[in-house]
Amino acid sequence: MADEYVVRNAREYETGVIDYTSYNEDRAPIMGYLDALCERTATGARVLDLRCGRGWETRTLHDRGYQPVGFDLSRAFLEHVRHQQPAIPCVRGDMRRLPFADASFEGAWASASLLHMSRTDLDVALAELARVLRPGAAFVGSVQVGDSEGFVPRKSAPGAELFYGYLAPEDWRARVEAAGFAIDDLVIEIHEEEQSHLNAGSRGWATVIARRGA
């Protein structure tokens, strides 16, 4: 079942690449979080962009002098990143089984990347992330706030569904800490009214700014 939902999600994104681009083209709301990652990571460092999608932040990191690696399960997304910036290495794979050596990255970015996982798989992915990061490496990651997990309708594509695993903010914090990270900050954004970027069952966002422990 776990592999089934992962493959199904990847397929949904691949069939809606153009729609996904227009739906997520405004990156301004998350730039402050990317700045937080950069403030904690030396220029020139190797940074992993988990589930990089169309590579918005991957390219920004490259332009800022970092050595980003785009990682995604979608071939279509990775091909787009390669087309936009051939100098960026792109790797296809599963976040639960990262194909990288231990301690091979000095930073990690996971904007809305881990929210498509079951809680069990999320713990596996966080442990894998901790494995490939060097001690002290910065990690910034966000999930949507809620109580449920399962397939929900995709707002940007009527008739399509994606798997979401929502978390309470303190549960998100606890899972990140259990994987071996020290939390610098946990930013919670709760929206009382319906937002276009939130799906059914979600109440907002929880973003951790953290460092891998020694």
Topology:
Layout: H1 2-15, H2 17-23, H3 31-39, E1 46-50, H4 56-63, E2 67-72, H5 75-84, E3 90-92, E4 105-110, H6 119-132, E5 133-145, E6 149-153, E7 161-165, H7 169-178, E8 181-190, E9 204-212
N-to-C SSE series?
HHHEHEHEEHEEEHEE
CATH architecture: 3-Layer(aba) Sandwich
Number of domains: 1
* CATH homologous superfamily designation: Vaccinia Virus protein VP39
Low-confidence stretches: none
Taking all Cα atoms into account, the compactness measure Rg is 16 Å
Number of helical elements: 7
Percent of residues in helices comes to 25-40%
Q: What is the 3D shape? A: globular
Q: Provide the CATH top-level class.
A: Alpha Beta
- Let me know the largest β-sheet: 7 strands, mixed
Q: Whole-number average pLDDT?
A: 90
- Strand order of the main beta sheet, please? 3-2-1-4-5-9-8
Written description of the protein model:
With 214 residues, the chain is α/β, with parallel strands linked by helices. The protein has one domain: Rossmann fold. The protein has 7 helices and 9 strands, in the order αααβαβαββαβββαββ. It has helices at residues 2-15, 17-23, 31-39, 56-63, 75-84, 119-132, 169-178, and strands spanning 46-50, 67-72, 90-92, 105-110, 133-145, 149-153, 161-165, 181-190, 204-212. The strands form 2 sheets. It has a 7-stranded mixed sheet with strand order 3-2-1-4-5-9-8, sandwiched between helices.
